[in-house]
């Protein structure tokens, strides 16, 4: 059974810092990995999707990497801003089946 | 529609009652998913539809939970004899090809 772990569970940083969020998964047989953002009381917004054959994806100040063999992904946020404060979730999609398995999330607070 | 719509946004019900949660996916998306998110945790898979049929219902916790999608568009998640442990945010997502679009969820509180 696939298990997804996110470290740290919570993170507080001053504005302007570069930061890294970590995601690990136990079964390397994945189809893709996706990073989501969730604001309080809201649904999930997709940030980046990495196919299993890819190593990284970039969107603006966000960069996500995937090392399938070691079961790890990182989300790098450059020059953090207070508006980046949210919960960040990673999720993997299995080769077989179409469900997403989510990690518990990292709650990020960026202080002005 | 432009996004995935879920109604109601909030539902408070008494223990033992029956509830229905509705999801209106993005037009044309054939895949629809239900997830449940408890406070401070990531979403957990409940059920997946491809068209009208449930392709995978392995995440439904017990037989009190049931979901339908009769015309391959709108889906309804039905919970019978609700228990306090059913309190959570119920999220719906639809998908075409690779990515997922989530709705804002229904916050269910069983008192």
* Low-pLDDT residue intervals, each spanning 5 or more residues of chain B: none
Listing every helix as H and every strand as E from the N terminus to the C terminus, the arrangement of chain A reads EEEEEEEEEEE
Structural class by secondary-structure content of chain A:
mainly beta
Helix percent of chain B reads under 10%
Query: What's the N-to-C terminus distance of chain B?
Result: 33 Å
Topology overview:
The complex is a heterodimer of chains A (112) and B (111).
Chain A: E1 4-7, E2 10-14, E3 19-25, E4 30-38, E5 44-51, E6 56-59, E7 62-67, E8 72-77, E9 86-94, E10 100-102, E11 106-111
Parallel strand pairs in A: 2-11
Antiparallel strand pairs in A: 1-3, 3-8, 4-5, 4-9, 6-7, 7-8, 9-10, 9-11
Chain B: E1 5-7, E2 10-13, E3 19-24, E4 31-37, E5 44-50, E6 53-56, E7 65-68, E8 75-79, E9 88-96, E10 99-102, E11 106-110
Parallel strand pairs in B: 2-11
Antiparallel strand pairs in B: 1-3, 3-8, 4-5, 4-9, 5-6, 7-8, 9-10, 9-11
Write structural notes for this entry.
The complex is a heterodimer of chains A (112) and B (111). Chain A contains no helices and 11 strands. Chain A has 112 residues and is mainly β. In chain A, strands 2, 4, 5, 9, 10 and 11 form a 6-stranded mixed beta sheet that branches. In chain B, the strands form 2 sheets. In chain B, strands 2, 4, 5, 6, 9, 10 and 11 form a 7-stranded mixed beta sheet that branches. Chain B has a 4-stranded antiparallel beta sheet with strand order 1-3-8-7, with no helix packed on it. Chain B starts with a strand and ends with a strand. Classes of the chains: A mainly beta (112), B mainly beta (111). The A-B interface holds A 4, 6, 32, 34, 36, 41-46, 49, 51, 89, 91, 97-105 and B 4, 31, 33, 35, 40-45, 48, 50, 55-56, 59, 91, 93, 95, 98-105, 107.
